[in-house]
């Protein structure tokens, strides 16, 4: 059953909103940073072939966008598997989905109109269920955004080995040192450790 909602109430605005997407197949749970694309009140996701998220969405046709301000969760979900204790299983329309326990909020989406290319899939997203765990007002922190950008460049570096990405990661690390709090600084140390 699809629902109507005000997407801004769940942190999803025009453009690309960075979330941690959770998916599962049976009891196998996965979390990965993903941008939810919103254009003219339509929602999409683009997933690259070869990722667990790609395989799970292709199989199950459902994903959950979790909104979080936790920089450490962004780094850990980029480079490793989260602990089972970080997930919670929820029943949505007779199907089991997984969400992040500590997310500020989440939106479960059905993935429809899936289009496959040689390297990715693009799916339109239709909201099925939402939940708000914590509603706290927080001003943007450049450190968190720098961690997210560093994660993106780190995955590109791992794929290509190009040094330009290392330079970008270092530049974002400098922003974290200047503007980030303890969590963001710890997240950058984790990221450097993964590289």
From TrEMBL:
InterPro entries: DUF447_C (IPR049288), DUF447_N (IPR007386), Split_barrel_FMN-bd (IPR012349). Residues 17-133, 141-192 form the DUF447 domain. Signal peptide: none annotated. It comes from the Archaea. This is DUF447 family protein. It comes from Methanolobus vulcani.
């Amino acid at each position: 059953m699809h629902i109507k909602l005000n997407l801004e109430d769940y942190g999803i605005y025009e453009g690309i909103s960075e979330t941690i997407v959770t998916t599962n197949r049976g009891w196998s749970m996965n979390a990965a940073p993903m941008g939810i694309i919103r254009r003219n009140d339509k929602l999409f996701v683009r997933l690259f072939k070869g990722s667990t998220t790609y395989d799970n969405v292709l199989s199950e046709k459902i994903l959950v966008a979790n909104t979080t301000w936790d920089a450490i969760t962004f780094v850990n979900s980029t480079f490793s598997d989260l602990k089972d204790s970080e997930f919670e299983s929820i029943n949505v329309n007779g199907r089991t989905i997984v969400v992040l326990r500590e997310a500020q909020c989440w939106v479960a989406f059905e993935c429809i109109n899936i289009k496959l290319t040689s390297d990715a899939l693009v799916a339109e997203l239709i909201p099925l269920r939402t939940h708000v765990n914590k509603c706290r007002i927080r001003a943007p922190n450049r450190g968190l955004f720098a961690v997210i950008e560093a994660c993106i460049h780190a995955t590109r570096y791992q794929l290509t080995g190009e040094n330009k990405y290392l330079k970008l990661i270092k530049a974002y690390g400098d922003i974290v040192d200047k503007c980030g709090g303890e969590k963001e600084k710890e997240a950058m140390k984790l990221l450097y450790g993964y590289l």
